[in-house]
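Chain A, query sequence.
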Amino acid sequence: MPNLVPLEENKRIQRVPDFSQLISGEWRDGINARCWPRALVGDFAEVVAALEPGEGITTLTESSLLGLNLTPAGKMAVELMLGDYRLLQQLGRDPELNCIRSYPRDDDPEVIATDVYSYHADSAPTAADTFLCTYHGAPSEGLRNEDALRKIDDPALRKELLSRFGGDDNEDFHHFLKESCYDLHYAPLPHTRPWSFGIGNFWRICCDFPQSPVPPCIHRAPDNLPGDPPRLLLIA
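Chain A, predicted structure.
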């Protein structure tokens, strides 16, 4: 278990008491994540056990979840997940409920891996944020912005990327970095402690977008270690 930064010590996180305050307000004062802390009721492990065996990512629909043969505790877990799903639908979002056994990894990560196991920021062309909640399995991890270095700002990595690009450090190179999503990936500084999104907490995190008033929330998917249970994740 890594030495994690407690949420209350992370000045970039605002804790809120309910969903209405999770979705309200603009990003400001350096805060780039809102958290609605929750202690969930229901048997989410039973939901995972009732699903068909599989690999990678399985998208869970309302009909597939309601069709599972579950005890009352398992049904309670399903209703909670679907309740969160509907809240995001009512916002006009397009949420997904997933059972995740593993994410795809870069087949050829070259200099900078760009899969979700790498610390990264989500991006959008206009103001946007990401909602997520882990109900079962390992939760996401985050880095405070002051504890992270954008990988393309590391002189050695930038030199290697320039060599692969085969040109000068100009607008064309900057476009190459953006098109490859290299500009969205970060490395923890020495002796940095990550922070955990936790189980059951409902999150809204700021994306990287033009003219954002705050830096984006840096996060990553947890490593899939042998014997680890699958994740149940809501994301939009």
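The two ends are 28 Å apart (CA to CA). The chain has six helices and twelve strands.
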